[in-house]
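G., the chain you wanted modeled:
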Amino acid sequence: MRSNKIVDISRLICYNIFMETIIKDEWTVLKRFLPEGWDTKATDLGALARRRKITDADTLLRVLLIHLADGKSLRTTAAYAEEVNLCSINDVALLHRLKASEEWLRWMAYELLYITRRGTIMPGEIFKKYRIRLVDGSSVSEQGSRGSDWRIHYCFQLNTLKCDTLNITSTKEGETFKQYEVRQDDLLMGDRGYCDRYGIMHVINNGGYVLVRFHSTKLPLFDREGRSFSVLEKLRSLRDAEVGDWDVWFRSPNDNHLIKGRLCALRKSKEAIEKAKKDIRREASRKGRKVNPDTFEYAEYVILFTTVNRHNINGESILSLYRGRWQIEIVFKRLKDIIGIGHLPKYNPGSCVAWLYGKMVVALLVERFYQEAEFISPWGYPL
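Predicted structure as tokens:
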């Protein structure tokens, strides 16, 4: 089995090939990877409501991808587009085009996600019971800055991939569920950073539910009598492929009352365990810290905390549902590590949402390039 390093290098190669197809004369090849009807949707969804300067979906998408994938500024993109005879447009007009393309880019991102992850996102009755929302945050910097200047807090609905919240704050404001408005029967899913009592109570108090990776330090657990709940003792009792599902309680930070939840867990594969422990050692070495032995033991399991009642979703379904978040997380990893979400070129929330969707389209197209490379045909592109 290939190492993760080799896989990442392979994807980086696919990204370079992707950039070549945009810039050179292989644009027709790239279009074969786009979802069916992508060009007519540009008109239907308002991206081509006006046809001055840019008259067709082909040109619009190509110019936007040059900006989004190559990291060129709007001004540089406009100059490049004129130089290679794509179109004649200035940076302000291009910004308006990007903003108008928000729904079009979202539609393409959703369609591409469905194609590349077909069958991995959990469908069915659960979407009728809850509005499932994936929350995440990312530190970004202004161009030319050496550090992090801003933090983007964004929220996507799992069944439509629609971004319903986007906030830009200083880096002093951490990742928490308190950044998001919550309504009745929302189910908010977050990574380990969102597993804190204040954020969870914010969701509960507004009629919602949470599903997060468990953080043993931020969320001490108890039994119904208020005695400490030994998480590791329960985890050690799991056999291979057995799903653990236990009732647990935590104390409300406001009045110290016990609040009920569930802990669902599954032991990882040997390869996943080795990778997790290697990452822990690397991070500890980088920061000059000593690792607690319990940290290594926790790394052997996927552990989720949720406030959803087991009568509505059993333990296996909780783990399957969280898998849907991991699919999106893979996209974000590509954004941050390969495609360069680290520099935020705009500060208007409307254009930022369109920019995020555009970055997702780039990430998912690279993923499709990678999948095609694994089953390469003699002529080098799909029919």
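Residues 1-7, 375-383 have pLDDT under 50 and may be disordered.

Shout if anything looks off.
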